[in-house]
């Protein structure tokens, strides 16, 4: 009879995500994971299949957590420009306060492991599609409410908002200037005028 797990699988994924996010996939050894998470090698293999499979779970966890947080926030906003400014201000301030200067886990993964990993490529393309669709739905609501002129190319503006978001996250790995970043957000949002 197999032994019962002595750990919470989601807690392990969360901890592994933090470590991979700080160090990257290649710079995180199995020994690092075992020490940081506090479970043994056999548990990692038996539960997740190995380091790579655990990494894939952490990316999926980050994608879901990040997307749902943004989506739920935007769904609660009534003022389109203020809602978007608030999303980007949170991104800027969270990254500015991050002492580890981790940037975006997805952007880090793109630069470290893509384009040579089809599974990760699928996760990341799905994330982009979901975020762009959420931005576009939010902007369409603004058109219906009369907050945005109806002649705007909402699909391309939504893609630009995604690109801005990822760029701010990458910029966060260096010395981030919150005021300069906020000005760039305002410039992009002026496309909605």
Keywords summarizing the entry:
0% strand, 73% helix, 193 residues, mainly alpha
Question: Explain this structure to me?
Answer:
There is one protein chain. The chain has nine helices and no strands. With 193 residues, it is mainly alpha-helical. α5 packs antiparallel against α9 (178-189). The N and C termini lie far apart (65 Å). The model has no long low-confidence stretch (mean pLDDT 91).
Strand content: under 5%
Q: How much helicity do the residues have?
A: over 70%
Biggest sheet, open or closed, and with what strands and sense? none
What is the number of beta strands?
Answer: 0
**How many H/I helices?**
9
